Amino acid sequence: MRIGDLSLSDCCVDHNLSVREITRMFDQHPDWPGVILTSSGQFVGMLSRQRCFEILGKPFGVDVFSNKTVLEFHNTYGTYNLLLDANTPVPDAVKQALGRDGNQAYEPIVVRQGERRYSLLKVHDLLLAQSDLLENLYSEVQQLSVIDPLTNLNNRRGFFEAAQQEINAFHANHGDLSALMIDIDNFKITNDIYGHFVGDQVLCAVAEEFKKALRQTDLLGRFGGEEFIALLPNTSLETAYRIADRLRIKVEELVVYVNGYQVSVTISIGVCHIQDAHGSLDALLSQADQAMYWAKASGRNQVIVWDQQLAYNIRKRKNELAKPGDSTSGSALSVLRIDAARIYDETIEGWAKALEMRDKETEGHAKRVEKMTLALARRCGIEEKDLVDIRRGALLHDIGKIAVPDPILFKPSSLDDEEWKIMRKHPTYAFELLSPITFLQNCIDIPYCHHEHWDGSGYPRGLKGEDIPLAARIFTIIDVWDALCTDRCYRPAWGMDEARKYILEQSGKILDPHITPIFLQMLDEAQGMMGTGSTCPGRVIK
């Protein structure tokens, strides 16, 4: 049997073939919408091209699945036997076999007669039983090959197929055509903090905002990951900019409520007009993409239009990064190091902000303790070159709390013994999270050790005295001080005198007795700058 130019029997493969061999088949046969798995001539399951590459495209997907059999791969993401009575008519069995619910995989058909179970249909019986149903199946698989299953937008393939038609219409009518390249800012941080399920819901919510804001004549697609693309027919550059900025504002105002979280994101958008791309679709999308990356590099949450000035700026930047014949020049490496450091710090600040978005009670805490910790570290003789790691450690001191369950983390009353056991694991969680990251390995002391006490009564390791890293001993004083001076759900903020008295009482117990006087002197100087009063002066310490 043939549907169009495709012989469905050609798509049958043995279930013992490796995933690597299946992907080669897909490369050799771009017209195949998927494969039908057989075992000794019997139908075992179906695997679409889209689903195969979607799974392999996930982190470590190729490493995990390449050497597995296609049946193991098929079964990994969930399949279910379709159990039928032996007297079920074959047409009814075929209809049920080809029916699906959401993203559920195709089920093999199993017949039951008393206690005995066995395969009901051989694959060719199934394929030949109902040609009209198979035609519907083929259309569905074709549809899946061009639609992103998460957002229901065009995927990359679907977008380019439709976009080429718009390009042809532009050349025929000589009208306007603009493109938008859109990327969600710091989306990896959203996934890291909240998990990929929440991240997927955010992607869907953002996609819905795009669909509501764009016209029916506009072409919208998910380009990959957190990147989207839009083609706007009959749209001038000025109008495209206004549309893009409207999208940006809509997303900025969006709050996604999922799993008890309130998640907000922003987007960066690049805009390009077809005339600037000389009528080429590839150039149009490439230039919109470069404008989008320029928007991200220059602050995010903004719209940048591709024009001659931007083209000049990009060429100039490339020349700074690499001179002809000397790709490792000192100036280029210097710029690269600066860019890398900026990206690292923006990522860390994004993590800290995401943590505060989970717990509104601690809003501003990370930035306050960062500034005070650096001020105290300088007074303790820490060299400037080491302050970078102390700053990062201060910002990330509570990063381990992302692994603490919300009912414990946000409990308004006292924790019981079992809950405290879980809460006290957050420094260990921080160590496990940060230690594999090379550029963060030198800032682990504060997240890992800021709950260690001078007298050895702290956690997680019960370190004592100068066995506690100096950075952590400095930070602990700042962390305690800021906690005392901040309103909490279980008590109001303390006044200056009360907080100062507590710091003195804990010197030699929780706090390093050598650092405490230095800290108190710093407070006195800050208090002098503010004048007399009872307010804690942490915010004016530089």
The shape is: globular
Please state the structural category. Answer: alpha+beta
Q: Regions with pLDDT < 50 over 5+ consecutive residues?
A: 1-8, 100-108, 117-134, 326-340
CATH structural class of the largest domain: Mainly Alpha
Q: Count the domains.
A: 3
Q: Count every helix, treating DSSP H or I runs of 4 or more residues as helices.
A: 23
Strand content: 5-15%
Main beta sheet strand tally, sense and closure: 5 strands, mixed
Radius of gyration: 30 Å
Commentary on this structure:
This protein has helices at residues 19-28, 49-56, 61-65, 70-76, 90-98, 123-129, 131-144, 156-173, 187-194, 196-213, 237-253, 281-297, 308-321, 330-358, 365-379, 384-395, 406-409, 417-423, 426-434, 445-449, 470-484, 496-506, 516-530; strands spanning 2-3, 6-7, 12-14, 34-39, 42-48, 82-85, 109-113, 116-119, 177-184, 219-224, 227-233, 256-258, 261-263, 267-273, 303-305. With 542 residues, the protein is of the alpha+beta class. The chain folds into 3 domains: 2-144, CBS-domain; 156-321, Alpha-Beta Plaits (2-Layer Sandwich), CATH 3.30.70; 335-540, Hypothetical protein af1432 (Orthogonal Bundle), CATH 1.10.3210. A 5-stranded mixed sheet has the order 10-11-9-14-15, sandwiched between helices. A 3-stranded mixed sheet has the order 3-4-5, with helices on both faces. A 3-stranded mixed sheet has the order 6-7-8. Strand 12 (256-258) and strand 13 (261-263) form a beta hairpin. Helix 9 packs across helix 14. The longest helix has 29 residues, at 330-358. The chain is globular, with a radius of gyration of 30 Å. The model is unreliable at 1-8, 100-108, 117-134 and 326-340 (pLDDT under 50).
